[in-house]
Amino acid sequence: MVPSELLVFGGSASRGLASKLAKELGAEPARAELKRFPDGECYVRLVDDVSGKVVAIVQSMALKPNEYLVEYLLMSETARDLGAEKVVGVIPYLPYARQDARFNPGEALSVKVVAGLLEKAGTELVITVDGHFHRVKNLRDLSRVESVNLTAAPLLARAAVERFGLRDPVVFGPDEESEPMAKAAAEAIGAEYSVLVKKRITATEVEVKPAREVEVRGDALIVDDIISTGGTVAEAAKVLRSLGAKRVFAACTHALLVGNAEERMAAAGVAGVIATDAVEGPRSVVSVAPLVARALKERLKLA
Ligand code: R5P
Questions:
Q1: 126 CA distance to ligand 1 middle (Å)
Q2: What's the whole-model pTM score?
Q3: Ligand 1 pocket, 179 CB below 6 A?
């Protein structure tokens, strides 16, 4: 297909990323009217004609997951209803993915519910970036929606080297689940990597310990998918400093930075934090647009 057959819509969470992505793909950013009614309900109108087009909807659903999810579902279903050939969701941050098992009896299997909603709204393919695909590997396992999970770890590692001038760095994942990201980041900059062991105490408190003996002579770079309250990075930084790290930096794909996360990390000696625009915010110094554009070109066979 050619770029003129593709329309890229930005949901209200990801307008900046949508226009960067459209540019990378050589497509025009499509126009949508997105508003809220006084009671909080979402209003959606797709201004451009979607009939016969492939529609990509960019909406990273962090921080206001319920609102962004509903807005996305309205956009996807409307596009299909109005004759779009195919709908692709560019959802770098897919909410509810962490509840990917019944950890306690009676719990909702939230990721399955969300996959079902995406399918019902006519989305065929979802692209995530460092999404939480640990127990569930693909939305296809739960629905007819196919998913592709990209990683921004190499981009983040290279940006950290450039921005912070890392000296003799070792890359650390703060928990076992972050090992693939730590490995990809370390390989991108030719560094060693290791992971720490994390135990979650409460929603905001964690305990972090070294998994094994490791010597850190230079800088340490913590790489993770999400920084939310900053507790994980703060505790990991304390451990790394005790292991001899000269300076500690953190890089993540999705910087949610809830509450006093910034102060918490600074107080633990974190000298700098960078993130991608998968969640648009003050720390977004790396764009995932080229990464997503490459994946879309490949999947859609875009010339
Ligand atoms: C957890 O599994 C994630 O990979 C992150 O480590 C976590 O979400 C970070 O949360 P916080 O910043 O609140 O410690």
A1: 23
A2: 0.95
A3: no
Task: Write out pLDDT tens, residues 205-244.
Answer: 999 998 877 889 999 999 999 999 999 999 999 999 999 9
Ligand 1: centre distance to CA 227 (Å): 6
Residue 125, amino acid: L
pLDDT, one tens digit per residue, over 41-81 is 999 999 999 999 999 999 999 999 999 999 999 999 999 99
* Ligand 1 contact, 131 CB (< 6 A): no
Nearest CA to ligand 1 atom 2: 177
- Cα of 50 vs centre of ligand 1, distance in Å, is 38
